[in-house]
Amino acid sequence: MTAPALPPLLPETTLSQVLQSYPGAQRALFARYHIGGCSSCAFSPTETLAQLCARNENLDVQEVISHIQDSHQGDVTLQISPADFAELRRETPELKVLDVRTREEHEAVTIPGSLLMTQELVQEAFSAWDKNAPVILYDHTGSRSLDAVAYFIGHGFTNARCLAGGIHAYSLEVDPSLPRYKVEIEA
Q1: pTM to 2 decimal places
Q2: What residue range is the signal peptide (predicted)?
Q3: Average of pLDDT values for 40-57?
Q4: Mean pLDDT of the chain
């Protein structure tokens, strides 16, 4: 499966456009430059990469662009497509599948056989599970699960991946019997 070509990042690209094409960009910016992770270092969706770099100690725009792109490639390696996940489930009956969404989302719709990731389950996984066995994590659209899979990898899980596009993509591409939904954010 070939990933679609991403639009080029230019100094005049807005942060909204960056995040749309490179969903892990905010995590990458915060990890290296401490930008975008809290209210004191936040950015506006209409701000351009050039403006962001100028107000953050005149960072080199091309270096920031390269970092976002490199981080994105790293994110891609942590993901498994819905089709490949379905095949892995067929081949690996004991596959551990963890749902990193809220309890309410999990109770509303879930991938059959998955477990809601609770603190207790994480402690059990870290202390008792085979860290070389495959573990797949998923959320609604595939963004939060990237953080969760990085956490598992950081704790020694060599074969942890997250479901690209989350349960939403899985229901579109593999199991249309799973209802799709939107999360309403309260103001």
Answers
A1: 0.75
A2: none
A3: 93
A4: 92
